[in-house]
């Protein structure tokens, strides 16, 4: 399948060079418009730099450019002949952990930057843990600023060894390492002449060849219904289709399916994408499905296979990242949004809070404050049909919404 889309996120401590690295990727892959480059050159000259500060390409907020830091998640799109990319440039500061969770929630891959002079720092541990918690399948550790340690091989080797020792406690299946200098461009898009000792691939080659086909669950068939299509026109007088995005597995016309929560069964009559009739649909395709029987199906229902159901329960165990400035107490009522379904829920129990820096569990907690991550139990007014986040990132994730303000206040990964 040519020109797949790879979503990746950047993470690292403050001043590790994330924005500069993204600017370098865009610049060296010729993905910048001339007027953008002129604006960045003008800003760099205004600041008195004798080089073009590529980090200005992604730091969009005025306060970011003034402080030279990233505050909000910045999304950038670019493409090469081999692949399309969406980058989420996430902040490095501890108080913006929630922004990192937001940017990483849909990523196939995480770039974790480490300053070659500093080695592993607390934020490296924090971001690697979040990448592991969010089940990002691929991680590339970029040892940046190699030009400031005279491209020393022993410095790079020590960081690789330290990171491998630390990451053995995490659940990340695919980790690669690359020594780079984002400022100068060593090993980003083009091979470095300053590091002859490094025989591996460049960062761009790793991004273009990361194997993402198996990142989706193609075993457990799940189709959350987003919208019931009833055109009410003469041509399609009796048409009733179910539109949504396939969250897992493979669906084909003629196969038997079950609709949850009602439990009624039917067979798939057709699958279409726009005007095109499909032989099969799989994650993450957005399609319209028709069934052979007239069944009462509405938004929030899930179409699955008869012998492979998601779990259905009102008591849901999850890892939760609290994102709101107001703390949350036990028995707080919230809306729970899971795929296309929204139900009322209440926070029944906080089992423990995690100290992300040490991975220690803090028990006997009765409230959570912003950016804290905890294992909690939520009870919903109606049963939800879900999988564990480990099995399926789409059907295993929820967001919590404040009843009064309608703000998104938390993100949850179902255990």
Key terms:
Elongation Factor Tu (Ef-tu), domain 3; 7 helices; alpha+beta; 3 domains; eight-stranded antiparallel sheet; Rossmann fold; 415 residues; six-stranded mixed sheet; globular
Describe the structure.
This protein is of the alpha+beta class. It folds into three domains: 5-215, P-loop containing nucleotide triphosphate hydrolases (Rossmann fold), CATH 3.40.50.300; 222-304, Elongation Factor Tu (Ef-tu), domain 3 (Beta Barrel); 311-414, Elongation Factor Tu (Ef-tu), domain 3 (Beta Barrel). It has seven helices and 25 strands. The strands form five sheets. Strands 7, 8, 9, 11, 12, 13, 15 and 16 form an eight-stranded antiparallel sheet that branches. The chain has a six-stranded mixed sheet with strand order 2-3-1-4-5-6, with helices on both faces. It has a six-stranded antiparallel beta barrel with strand order 17-23-20-19-24-25. Strand 24 (397-402) and strand 25 form a beta hairpin.
In short:
With 415 residues, the chain is α+β, with helices and mostly antiparallel strands.
Global morphology: globular
Oligomer: single chain
Given the helix and strand composition, which structural class is it? Answer: alpha+beta
Largest sheet: 8 strands, antiparallel
Q: Which percent range describes the beta-strand content?
A: 35-45%
Number of helices: 7
Mean pLDDT: 87
Number of strands: 25
Report the CATH architecture of the largest domain: 3-Layer(aba) Sandwich
CATH level-1 class of the largest domain: Alpha Beta
State the separation between the terminal residues, measured CA to CA.
33 Å
Low-pLDDT regions? 61-71
State the domain count: 3
CATH superfamily of the largest domain: P-loop containing nucleotide triphosphate hydrolases
CATH fold type of the largest domain: Rossmann fold
Radius of gyration: 23 Å
Helix content: 10-25%
